[in-house]
Amino acid sequence: MTVVADEIRCSHCNAPVEFKPGEIITTCKYCGFTTVIQTGQAFNFEHSIVLNNYDVAKMENYVRTWMSSGFMKPGDLAKKSKIDEKNLVYLPFWVVSVVATTKYNGIFERISPPVMKDGQIKKEYDWLVLARSATVFPTREYVVPLAGKIPYDFRKIEGFAKVLNSEISKDDALDMAKQQIDNHHRFLLQQNIDRVIEVSTVLELKQMVYLHAPVWFIKYQYKNNAYQLIIDGTNGNTLKGDIPSTKF
Known about the structure:
By secondary structure, this protein is mainly β. The chain is built from three helices and 13 strands. It has helices at 56-68, 77-80, 170-189; strands spanning 8-9, 16-17, 25-27, 34-36, 41-42, 47-49, 82-108, 115-130, 150-151, 162-163, 195-222, 225-232, 238-241. The strands form three sheets. Strands 6, 7, 8, 9, 10, 11, 12 and 13 form an eight-stranded mixed beta sheet that branches. The chain has a three-stranded antiparallel beta sheet with strand order 3-4-5, with no helix packed on it. A two-stranded antiparallel ribbon has the order 1-2. The protein is flat. The relative contact order is 0.23.
């Protein structure tokens, strides 16, 4: 007979730990201790947090300022929009710090006659992997301010904020980063060669950090249509902003 656990207790303070199906790494909201649900063991990797710098009122002002700036927006957007939701969510990320080296050879066909070319692309990344399996988020547009990270402290999180747990393990995150970096380097290769004959990418892993970062999800209405903003809670950068169409 198979039994599904509906409660896990923190191995540090014995308080009940909240989690949802699919989540494999969770953090106790009472003491801040982090546990791998699959094994019930204490989390033994670096767990950091980036702090939010906006309260609800500041975010409201920020959104209204965003609405009133930029020539692509309707002139009455700030005045006639209704903000329905202002949700602060601490999203979980794996930050994969690597040196990626791609060696290649292929054919450059933009000249006549075509020529064989070989070389390498070597870059250093703090590659970001969203630790949620079904969340749409503009990860490539988001630059986590790693210089501002501190050890995870549940006491620094606002009472109205939502904290999501990881659904992706460290190994899975590393595999995802490898695939994404390989695809990115293959895209960069198009500047140097037209037809790839051989290509291989090797990663030198420096470190992996499990990190929670504050992101504001804003929903607003304009002329009975719904739109969304996604805003970095550390510096106010707009990661994604839906703008109503304007007729010129």
